Amino acid sequence: MATDQVFLLPDLGEGLTEAEVLVWKVSVGDRVTVDQHVVEVETAKAAVEVPCPYAGEVTALHAEAGTLLEVGKPLITIAAESSSTPEPRSSQHGQHREEEKAGSGNVLIGYGTGHGGPRRRRARVGSAPTAQPVPTQGTDSASYPAATTAPATAGQPRVLSPVVRKLARHHDVDLATVRASGPGGVIVRADVERAIAEATSVRSATASTPGETRTPLRGMRGAVAEKLSRSRREIPDATTWVDLDATALLEARTAMREAGADVGLLALFARICVAGLRRFPELNSTVDVERNEIVRYGHVNLGFAAQTDRGLLVPVIRDAHDMTTEQLAVAIRELTDLARSGALAPEQLSGGTFTLNNYGVFGVDGSTPIINHPEAALLGIGRIVDKPWAHRGELALRKVTQASLSFDHRVCDGGVAGGFLRYVGDCIENPITLLSGL
């Protein structure tokens, strides 16, 4: 005997209240085990795979790929076997039937699956809707067998034909917005074709240039846009910069590698940032607008920009002030790999106190970077190129870069910002400067 278990989109933490369904990893009719990854979703922080706390047969998927789903809404329905029907379990894991009912506690990398009532950021009224069986076969005509017309979940589009779903996906049609004309409120092919025609007409009327496309500003891109806009609205920022001779720093990196230390330039810049913040802690702070206070941190959580297929992310190295240069290098590699694979947990993308941006990897010399709200400063490093430079009284070809510092003018004045940037420059031009702070 099986009991339907509706798994709701769990609390995502970090104040997140919604996620976009990217890819389903199971289909209706598949059997799943406890903690099996069933779907990949994208939040404003990261793309993560969601494991299911129930074992049994999948009877319904409650959201199409591309759907924006709120926390606490039905995600998937599992026909879970009741406790009176034992299911063989691996002795290696030593799990019990109770685990399938309560959930294993491993959803969304650090967030629990057990949700007798899911944790919520705000109160919600009403109970979970009845599960909607999604048939595996169908037709795009308006006539359907009675066995396939089970009651639909409230607010969910009813589409019985794979052909109709494929047509909608191909033309980027949101089925939730399509008017159904089939029996029992079923969406048929003619409904999708009508929606395509209407969308085409609207695009033709509003497009300013041929081939114009529109992309929803949501998920991580939406979160980045909101953060940058808020930074510009709230922070009275200023930028200062300096050209630097990085020849000695490159020589130091080469010497470290020859000595067996796998350290890159970004790790060296990170080490310099940490040392600079120890001398100028005003920049390792934030402004509490509600209480009209400057909050100076006693730790350094160093964020660094990492380019990925999903856009620019800022993973955070927690307690960077306690790390050696080699430990910083390891942390940078690990977080970069996670960012590019889409496996960063939400907490690995938040809580930064200062950001380092090596925009030189894009082949540019300088920038006036926007501060990563709610932080107070950001250090940017441009590309390192050969340039003529006055060195020891002579003109020589040296490895030259530009460093720029954007800072919140509420937390410090130009003297502090200039002092920090000059210290960073001294460490880049003469790495032995770092030893004075050890």
Q: How is this structure best described in words?
A:
- By secondary structure, the protein is of the alpha+beta class.
- It has 3 domains: 1-134, OB fold (Dihydrolipoamide Acetyltransferase, E2P) (Beta Barrel); 136-208, Dihydrolipoamide Transferase (Irregular); 221-437, Chloramphenicol acetyltransferase-like domain (Chloramphenicol Acetyltransferase), CATH 3.30.559.
- It is 25% helix and 24% strand.
- The chain is built from 8 helices and 19 strands.
- The chain has helices at residues 97-102, 162-170, 189-206, 219-234, 247-258, 265-279, 325-341, 414-429, and strands spanning 2-8, 18-24, 31-32, 37-42, 47-51, 56-61, 68-70, 74-81, 237-245, 285-288, 293-296, 302-304, 306-308, 311-313, 316-317, 354-357, 377-381, 385-391, 394-408.
- Strands 9, 12, 15, 16, 17, 18 and 19 form a 7-stranded mixed beta sheet that branches. Strands 1-8-6-3 form a 4-stranded antiparallel beta sheet, with no helix packed on it.
- Helix 6 packs across helix 7 (325-341).
- The longest helix has 18 residues, at 189-206.
- It starts with a strand and ends in a 9-residue tail after the last helix.
- The model is unreliable at 83-154 (pLDDT under 50).
